[in-house]
Design brief:
The protein has about 270 residues and is mainly alpha-helical. About 50% of the residues lie in helices and about 10% in strands. It has eleven helices and six strands. The strands form three sheets. Strands 1-2 form a two-stranded antiparallel ribbon. A two-stranded parallel ribbon has the order 3-4. Strands 5-6 form a two-stranded antiparallel ribbon. Helix 3 packs antiparallel against helix 4. The radius of gyration is 25 Å and the shape is globular. The protein starts with 5 loop residues before the first strand and ends in a 24-residue tail after the last helix.
Length: about 270
């Protein structure tokens, strides 16, 4: 929404479940969002900062599926769409295959192919060069891509949607594209069609849209009764800004008063060098 304002949105396949305006994607903000929703069996996430910490506290028994499209884009970010190195080309191809896996057998085959890739290029990826007097990985971007995939596999967040116990009620989503295409995209279009709105009005526009796309939307008259006014939002924003500015002025480590400078056990001063 703006430099220090975002709206966190949780949705099912059909409806908006909850939304929360925050300054950033912090764990505290995600806690406020998730605490109002009954714990689901599975949650699909793009891996945003703060989410996992909040999920562990609020939904400790909920299984996590990392959006496979976001997993692919993370690989693509490091390899680019046209890798020059054969190592990168093979990893990019594996990333593309992530988007088309529909069975557990295909997932096992993918993991096997990935482990073959890791073994094949292990020595190559461990090559190091000296830059500015220190050793660094020669192919650092590919090393980061490998680490990202390893993290997802070790946590078991890459193919959760294929878990047989979770799929008893039907197939589960592997991506959160429903959120991107069904919610975020229409919201951006609404804001584009109403250019010139101040930030407070843009936030309220998002609130109205989410209200009308929830499972049991209130009438416009009832929404007006519970919708915060411009003055309410402005007041909250100012209070948060005041608290943050005061927090920044609190003495940090090394800035606070030293107790021994004013209370000594002998007559000699201790603050002289």
């Amino acid at each position: 929404m703006a430099r220090n304002v975002c709206v966190l949105i949780a949705a099912s396949d059909e409806y908006v479940l909850s939304w929360y305006v925050a300054r950033s994607e912090s764990s505290r903000s995600y806690k406020a969002l998730l605490s109002r929703i009954a714990p689901p069996m599975l949650v699909v996430t793009d891996g945003g900062s703060g989410f996992e910490k909040a999920r562990k506290e609020i939904w400790p028994d909920t299984e996590v599926q990392r959006c496979t499209f976001h997993a692919f884009t993370q690989i693509k970010r490091y390899t680019t769409t046209r890798p020059n190195l054969v190592c990168g080309q093979e990893l990019y191809k594996l990333g593309l295959e992530l988007l088309h896996i529909t069975t557990k057998q295909e997932a096992k085959l993918w993991v096997k192919q990935y482990l073959v890739w890791v073994s094949k290029w292990d020595e190559f990826l461990n090559e190091k060069t000296v830059q500015d007097g220190r050793e660094e990985f020669t192919h650092l971007r590919l090393v980061k891509a490998k680490r990202a995939v390893n993290t997802l596999l070790n946590k078991g967040h890459l193919f959760t949607y294929l878990d047989e116990l979770l799929c008893i009620g039907g197939p589960l989503p592997s991506t959160n594209n429903r959120l991107e295409g069904g919610i975020n995209s229409p919201l951006r279009q609404v804001l584009r069609e109403h250019r010139g709105l101040c930030l407070i009005r843009r936030i309220k526009a998002v609130f109205w849209w989410c209200c009308f796309h929830s499972e049991r939307p209130l009438s416009a008259a009832d929404i007006l009764k519970v919708m915060p006014t411009d003055e309410d939002i402005e007041k909250i924003s100012k209070s948060l800004t005041y608290l943050e500015s005061n927090y920044e002025s609190i003495p940090k480590w090394g800035d606070a008063i030293v107790w021994s400078e004013f209370h000594t056990s002998d007559p000699w001063r201790h603050d002289w060098d």
